[in-house]
TrEMBL record:
Protein name: Tripartite-type tricarboxylate transporter, receptor component TctC
Entry keyword set: Receptor, Signal
Residues spanning the signal sequence: 1-22
Pfam family membership, one: TctC
Domain of life: Bacteria
Stated family: Belongs to the UPF0065 (bug) family.
Protein source organism: Noviherbaspirillum humi
């Protein structure tokens, strides 16, 4: 009886302490872990959000880039962190594809995290080196098919947005060609700019400035409708390629067991950030925008993640990709 009483008192004390901690949260800086290299598209989104959230939360949100294994190293780190709200994860679509791309994960994207809200959906662009011979997307596809043994496609590594987009591209045109994985978007883009690789499919957050400057050629966007930032750039469907529509969404996560009041504060700061005019303007310049407010709740985020995991499992299996 005494042992049970001690246990009950200890549990009550823990609950009280957790509640009190949640009420005063945050009392120190928060680490936002980003799974990809500094300067890449996900990093750009994360730093914009972190800067705005810092103002709302009254504590600095420090970005930490933890790269490798398609984002799974960063995700595992956050999944196993203390569930106190001081270590959070900003991840993209890779959170939904990891179960299909990797045989062994030390976390489950659905059960190892508390979802804290969707951030943005970034369109993808099919781009090529500046002196690529094709004039438009249709002739690009024809050129690739005629020269598939000579063409190479850059990506930022397994599980990256550019990897997924490139995989769908090859599947959509029913043509396989050489894929060159890099350790991040920056090195891949540098080689595209230098003409060492031919093609890349990447987020507008990474390609827009290079397209506008004429340093690379843009052939199509992978969205159902054209983009305001590139009104003359056709969609892949308009250009005659079906089943090649993809955008890269981003979301915030905390370790499973993070108190709901803490999640609510993180989510509240995110919502403020997505209405921040500086964030809106910077997103627009990168060819994207914040998600609609009705999609920013933790509940909607979790439902969306679940549906994306199921969708990408089918796509990856149909593409014949074997898990690593």
């Amino acid at each position: 009886m005494k042992n049970m009483l001690r246990f009950t008192l200890a549990a009550a004390t823990l609950v009280t302490a957790t509640a009190a901690s949640a009420q005063t949260y945050p009392t120190k800086p928060i680490t936002m872990v980003i799974p990809f290299a500094a300067g890449g598209p996900t990093d750009v989104v994360g730093r914009l959000i972190a800067q705005s959230m810092s103002k709302t939360l009254g504590q600095q949100v420090i970005v930490e880039n933890t790269v490798g294994a398609g984002g799974t190293i960063a995700a595992a780190r956050v999944a196993h962190a203390q569930p106190d709200g001081y270590t959070i994860l900003l991840h993209h679509i890779g959170q939904s594809t990891a179960p299909s791309l990797y045989r062994k994960l030390s976390f489950d994207p659905l059960t190892s995290f508390e979802t804290a809200g969707l951030v943005t959906e970034v369109p993808m662009t099919v781009v090529a080196r500046g002196n690529f011979p094709a004039k438009d997307f249709s002739s690009m596809v024809q050129y690739i098919k005629a020269n598939k043994d000579k063409i190479n496609l850059a990506n930022a590594g397994t599980g990256s947005a550019s990897h997924l987009c490139g995989m769908l591209f090859q599947h959509a045109i029913n043509t396989q060609f050489t894929t060159i994985p890099y350790k991040g978007t920056g090195p891949a883009m540098n080689d595209l700019l230098g003409g060492q690789v031919d093609i890349m499919c990447d987020q507008t957050t990474n390609t827009t400035s290079y397209i506008k400057s004429g340093k690379i050629k843009a052939y199509a966007v992978t969205t159902p409708k054209r983009l305001a930032v590139f009104p003359d750039l056709p969609t892949t469907r308009e250009a005659g390629v079906q089943n090649f529509e993809v955008s890269v969404w981003h979301g915030l996560y905390a370790p499973k067991g993070t108190p709901r009041p803490v999640i609510d504060k993180i989510n509240g700061a995110l919502k403020v950030a997505l209405k921040d005019q500086l964030v809106i303007d910077r997103f627009a310049g990168l060819g994207t925008e914040p998600v609609a407010e009705n999609r920013t709740s933790p509940e909607v985020h979790k439902q969306f993640l679940q549906s994306e995991i199921a969708k990408w499992k089918t796509v990856i299996q149909q593409a014949g990709v074997q898990p690593e």
